[in-house]
Write a structure and sequence with these properties.
- Helix 3 crosses helix 4.
- The protein has helices at about 15-20, 55-60, 100-115, 125-135, 140-150, 240-245, 255-275, 290-300, 325-335, 360-370, 395-400, 405-410, 430-445, 455-460, 470-475; strands at about 1-10, 30-35, 40-50, 70-75, 80-85, 90-100, 120, 125, 155-160, 165-170, 180-185, 190-195, 205-210, 215-220, 220-225, 235, 250, 255, 280-285, 310, 335, 345-350, 375-380, 450, 470.
- About 30% of the residues lie in helices and about 25% in strands.
- It has a seven-stranded antiparallel beta sheet. A six-stranded antiparallel beta sheet has the order 5-6-9-10-14-15.
Length: about 475
Amino acid sequence: MGGVFGICSNNECVTDLFFGTDYHSHLGTRWGGMAVFDGKQYTRVIHNIENAPFRTKFESDIPEMKGFMGIGCISDSNLQPIIINSRIGTFAVVTVGRINNKDELARQLTSENNVYFFEISGGSINDTELVASLICRKDNIPDGIKYAQRKIEGSMTMLISADGGLYAARDRLGRTPLFVGEKDNGEDGYCASFESFSYINLGYKTCHELGPGEIVFITPDKMTSVSGPLDKMKMCTFLWLYYGFPTSDYEGVNVEEMRYKCGQSMATQDIADGTGVKADYIAGIPDSGTPHAIGYANQSKIPFARPLIKYTPTWPRSFTPKDQSIRNLIARMKLIPISALIKNKKLLFVEDSIVRGTQLRGMMDELFSYGAKELHGRIACPPILYDCKYLNFTRSLIENEAITRKSIIKLEVADSIGDSRLAPYADPESKQYRNMVEDIRKELNFTTLKYHSLHSMLRSVGIDKCRLCTYCWNGKE
């Protein structure tokens, strides 16, 4: 995943750029970067943020950076910003998304245009440099953006600093959000941002939310439309469920409020199905499971409690390292149990989703060791079955490391499982679905386990379901 932020002002912009970019730290933990333009040249700084937060890594760089226009990013996949000196001018670019036809595009560029690539991330061509190369095939930045968006299979939202301003372009199907904020009614500059909350404390107010495929150009004193929004949208539903920060708003729907509604919907579903439990407390798996649990507790009238507390002084972030053993250790270290709220208690835990499930299993085992009588699980979304083709957050599904894939392989007595065999497991009325959920329940050591239905989850978001992406649950685009 990742997030982008940009500033265009008549005044020094580095402080606003620094804090606005930092407010995207919940979207990734690998790379952070900023580039500012002072009217003559760009200054770029990139740091690895795996072992220290963005703010800590960049504080010492701020005094050395000067400029009135800049872009920043948090990225889990690519070093960025990229600065390009080309026949259409010098520009800086940041992106968030995924390019599924990267190899094909790279071969085309290198063979037809004598292009070569400098930036290599994880042994692969840097996505952002590839985007910049596509843009340079046209005679100007706007045409280049449109060309890149047409050629890319996947999803790509971008900010480009060029031509005395910022180009902000949302991906063609609006899978990720993009906002424009204005300061003092546009008299003191504009910003562009993945997250709508990132600029509130900096004195900006939202003046525009870009539609799918829309492109705008921002200067210090105005915002101009370059290309209007397209009709079709497929926004990532996971932004509301998990990735989005609680203060975020997407398409007019607040993340925290949606999670309350999601929890209420699960409780209503349990009551209607007769599967509700007489728990002593409703609890959330910190952090993103907590608001779902609050909604469940409010609807079920069962008290909400926090038997697991995250130690925020040193474990404030929800993302964790790629190595599974280290990830398991960190999951254990950052959550502290409260014995008084666990011993001899029947607890219902609400979680936003399950991918691998290894940390959750360890958590349930520990809670039982503290004397819990029953541990019930309620998951705010359906089982995740398909690898996301657009935002790079379900790689474990391809590798058959996800708990759903492992369960299906076991049930099918197979060595691996392909997408063509998953459809029955996405149908909550099927025997295959019920067997899979029961196998997962046993694997995670829950007393009972139930997933939210797709229909009810989408209704919790509250916008037209045809405008939401559900691919990771049902394989449908």
